[in-house]
Amino acid sequence: xxxxxxxxxxxxxxxxxxxxxxxxxxxxxxxxxxxxxxxxxxxxxxxxxxxxxxxxxxxxxxxxxxxxxxxxxxxxxxxxxxxxxxxxxxxxxxxxxxxxxxxxxxxxxxxxxxxxxxxxxxxxxxxxxxxxxxxxxxxxxxxxxxxxxxxxxxxxxxxxxxxxxxxxxxxxxxxxxxxxxxxxxxxxxxxxxxxxxxxxxxxxxxxxxxxxxxxxxxxxxxxxxxxxxxxxxxxxxxxxxxxxxxxxxxxxxxxxxxxxxxxxxxxxxxxxxxxxxxxxxxxxxxxxxxxxxxxxxxxxxxxxxxxxxxxxxxxxxxxxxxxxxxxxxxxxxxxxxxxxxxxxxxxxxxxxxxxxx
Amino acid sequence: xxxxxxxxxxxxxxxxxxxxxxxxxxxxxxxxxxxxxxxxxxxxxxxxxxxxxxxxxxxxxxxxxxxxxxxxxxxxxxxxxxxxxxxxxxxxxxxxxxxxxxxxxxxxxxxxxxxxxxxxxxxxxxxxxxxxxxxxxxxxxxxxxx
Lengths: 357, 146
Known about the structure:
The structure holds 2 protein chains of 2 kinds. Chain A is α+β, with helices and mostly antiparallel strands. Helices cover 38% and strands 28% of the residues of chain A.
């Protein structure tokens, strides 16, 4: 098996999308499997194929700060991308990959996992498609059928701009944004965070990635160039991907909150109780409360019972009955009073985060 | 139900085998299309179905829309050429119907075929068609792990 490597260096932001889409669309039977490597010269925001930009992204902020927004033909959520992420795109003939999505990810992600390990980062593939180290995400990936090709995409994250990632998202409240920022910091790591001064140079990291893709795929790699036919498709896609008609089309993907890593989400919901509005901002980890903020315009005596309640609920499964029981017991034990707000109202607000959009 | 390597592949449908889509000629001459049991097994839980718009004309094998599961996005190629006359709003609202009922409530759209006879001749159907689909799955090493 031979794999063509397109080592493209730093490219204009739009090309960091149009090139791999173009190589995939141009792929015909018999064309070589290809891995493209590049990073974008300018930062931008990239949304999933079925997302709706206005619902997910603070478009005004992006416009005011000159941050372009582009839609990819791969699924999933919005990401902030910049030159500190080395993108890899594995563009394969469909029949060269296993049938099931799980097996495809296992096969393709073996290379990036091994590359991180060679750097000294104890990375593992957390199915279906996360790369994690010590429970933190160090790389997200996605897959799509494009033209005749099957593609899997991901990146080596040397550095990450946590502040801007949290800033470009459209969020229901600043409390929510703070929680997203805090969760990104806690659950997303980078090569430089893990290794500090021992981090490999960009070039060393890239060479490790190429070598381990070759080893884990059992393939010979050959450096190649983009063909004239591929360039024609890429140039055509430049126009499509940059158009407002493509970027601002209606989406169909409606999900509650923001996914940070596999099994980790930040979500917010509100419930109107007789005594006032109860707003819950929940960080969920594998179905349980990992962090919680309760706010709104209800009253609690003494007020410090609320932060104590929030802390006491960490680890509680996101199930309304369990929550109601625990909250009621806590409030009784503390002698806390919430006029016309029942334990069930707080539990309702918390569990509503699972379905609110 | 016709069981082929663990997949349900009814013999009375017409299949564009390598794209894992099906077609059924309705009494009114329209053609109903959707993803096969093989396609939905590959994709796992579908979370978005976005058919192209009513009125659009499709070439055979052209994308009739896109679907997204938790971990994959891809097109649904049209098994026949023609004009889209209706899309299944129910599956747009509840995409997992593709998983639970791929040949029933999980249908994607109705097409007014431009050349049913010649397109159908290129699709796999009946016992011979099922044998063709089985041979394709075996050649690809595909079987159902349910």
